[in-house]
Design brief:
Layout lengths: L16 E5 L3 H13 L3 E5 L2 H10 L4 E5 L7 H9 L9 E6 L13 E4 L4 H8 L5
Parallel strand pairs: 1-2, 1-3, 3-4, 4-5
Helix pairs in contact: 2-3
Length: 131
């Protein structure tokens, strides 16, 4: 993976369209800012229901979702996303959580990143291979 010019932060290889679904405002804002700086196009949602509505109307390369959220949690969002036609389903899904372990997603085509996480780990994951 290449580095962003003038930084030690990894760059995202192509202009990925990323949907961040996170209920905690400061975390959502920080992730979106850092991922944008790495070269991606970012859209955000506050919960799974808002995220699903965006997935139904726009295409995203990556869904990055928290697992524990009000209204619709990340587990339900992932399940609903898997039911979408290929033209609406992101090619990659990454779940983030401080409450759950990766094992809760066994059998799902989802990558997992535990909170708190290092932004470089997330950027490396975003620049990696599809699920």
């Amino acid at each position: 993976m290449s580095l962003m010019p003038g930084t030690s932060q990894p760059a995202i290889p192509k202009k990925l369209r990323i949907l961040i679904v996170e209920d905690h405002g400061p975390t959502r804002i920080a992730m979106s800012r850092l991922i944008r700086q790495a070269g991606a196009e970012v859209t955000t949602a506050r919960d799974g229901e808002e995220g699903l509505n965006l997935l139904l109307t726009q295409y995203f390369d990556v869904l990055l979702t928290d697992l524990r959220m009000p209204v619709m949690d990340g587990f339900d969002l992932i399940n609903e996303t898997m039911k979408l036609p290929d033209t609406k389903r992101p090619s990659r899904m990454i779940a983030i959580s401080g409450e759950y372990e990766a094992g809760v997603l066994t059998g799902q085509a989802v990558q997992f990143l535990a909170k708190p996480f290092n932004i470089d780990s997330l950027l490396n994951m975003l620049g990696g291979q599809p699920n």
